[in-house]
Every structure is written in C-alpha cells, then in structure tokens.
Amino acid sequence: MAVNRVPLLAGNWKMNLDHLQAIAFVQKLAWTLKDASHDFDAAEVAVFPPFTDLRSVQTLVAADKLSIAFGAQDLSMHDSGAYTGEISGAFLAQLDCTYVIIGHSERRTLHAEDDTVVAAKTAAAVKHGLVPVVCVGETAEDLEKHGPSAVPVAQLRTALEGLDAGADIVVAYEPVWAIGSGQAATPDQAEQVAAALRDVVREILGDEAATRTRILYGGSVKSSNIAGFMREPNVDGALIGGASLDVNEFSSIVRFQKHVGV
Q: What is its EC number (predicted)?
C-alpha cells in the first residue's frame, strides 16, 4: 500500500535577516509560489526565522492568510524561570509556531548540546504543542569510524525515549560533513539512513508513528539535487540552509514536483 506523507520543505534561516527583511522575504516567497500555482497541500512550506522575527512573520501570515508555516530554531528545555536568554516553548506556542528545530549540528557543536539535552528539548516541544524537527547526523570522522547510520540512529533513539506514541515529530538527517560544504550526500546515502531512522521510530513509537513521521534530508540541498532525494521512498522533504535565503532558489526547491520524474 502506498504511503502518502505530505513532503515538508523547511528553510532554516539561521542567524540571518532582521524582522523587516523577514517580512519582505516571506511576502516575496508567497507571491513567487502563488505565481507558480504551488499546491501547498501537495508540498508543505515552512520557514524558521530568528527569534526576533517570529512575531513579524506571525502577524504577516495571519493578516494575509498565507499558507506558509513557520517555526523557531531552538527552544529551552525549561518552561519558565531564571534562564536568561532562553525561550520557552510556551512562548513559541503563543506566537502560533508550528515547528521548532531541535539538536541542529550547530547547537550540538557550538553550544555543547548532547543527546540528553536534545531529548529534554524534544519533550518540551511536544509538551507545548509544537512539532519538534529533531536533527541527527554524523561527522566525517563518525562516518569513517562507525558507518553511515550508527550515530544518527543512536541520537534519535535517545531523543524519542519517553515520548508518547501519538507524538507528532519530524526527523531531519543532516550529515555534518555535508552541511555548507556544497557536497551533498547521494540520494542512496540519504535513503539508507532515512530507512534506518524510520525503523527507530517504529521501534520506539510504533508502526503508525513510523508510517506518518516525515524524515527530511539536509546538507547542501539545492534545486539541482532536490529531485534525486525526493525520489527516495523514505525521504519526505528537506531542511534547507543557505539556499533557503534566496527566494528564487528556495521556491524552485519547494516546487521539486515539477522536475521529479515518475
């Protein structure tokens, strides 16, 4: 039986674009996709702006009734309290965020977030009604030492422990060696790891969760290579970094169905 998971094309802006630039970008993205007659029911589009942009994006999306989803790039494992500089999932929920990225490789490496922290943040997201986009991936050293899926599988297993089987999650496989390198994984490599990650979801959350959970690929995704990834049965979209800051390039990635062969 064919599985119908709506692809998710997610643009992670990282620390780029202030709130005024964010408004202009989302407006232009919406216009570009409308002009191209993009079907948002066939391929979901989401952007992940910096925290300072979220209120502006929320207001624009609501006022113009845009079909573009949005989320945050991180959240605190804590609900509230003396945690200077952190952002609670409760705050993000009040901004109508749908998603939040958790465990991105830059958080893991630059902010020393380990699997335990990622698991706590994943639980916090679910608690506040946010869909966590749980990032997993291996370095070049990990790849050589452990093979292509061992590290991502271990990371995801820890992140999902304790979640209810009904939890709505997204998994993003981002090989650290591919991020920003211009050298993406091959579709076969992405599929191999995505299939192993789906098995982890099945093992911990059950068959129904494994069937519905979307698994994204991230790492030097471009309009010229997205079609190859999207042909793979276990790849359900992409988490896009640098290319998501170019409206024309991002919109071309979003419209991958125009150039995916049958």
A: 5.3.1.1
Catalytic, 259? Answer no
CA 43 from centroid of its chain's CA atoms: 14
What residue ranges do the domains of the chain occupy? 8-258
Catalytic position from the list 104, 106, 138, 232: 104
Q: Look at residue 242 and tell me whether its pLDDT is greater than 90.
A: yes
Give, to the nearest 10 degrees, the angle between helix 150-160 and helix 115-127.
40
Residue 191 annotated among the catalytic residues of the structure: no
pLDDT tens digits, 1-37: 357 899 999 999 999 999 999 999 999 999 999 999 9
Count of all residues that appear for the chain in the document: 262
In this prediction, residue 53 carries a pLDDT of 98
Pick the catalytic residue: 44, 106, 138, 174? 174
Sequence-distant (6+) residues with CB within 8 A of 120 are 77
Q: Give the model's confidence band at 165: pLDDT under 50 very low, under 70 low, under 90 confident, else very high.
A: very high
Phi, psi of 187 (to 5 degrees): -55, -40
Q: With H, G, I as helix, E, B as strand and everything else as coil, classify residue 72.
A: strand
CATH among 3.40.50.1980, 3.20.20.70, 3.10.20.340, 3.30.750.24 for 8-258: 3.20.20.70
Full-model pTM: 0.94
* Residues contributing to the annotated binding site for substrate: 12-14, 180, 220, 241-242
Q: How confident is the model at residue 140 (pLDDT cuts 50, 70, 90)?
A: confident
Residues in the annotated binding site: 12-14, 180, 220, 241-242
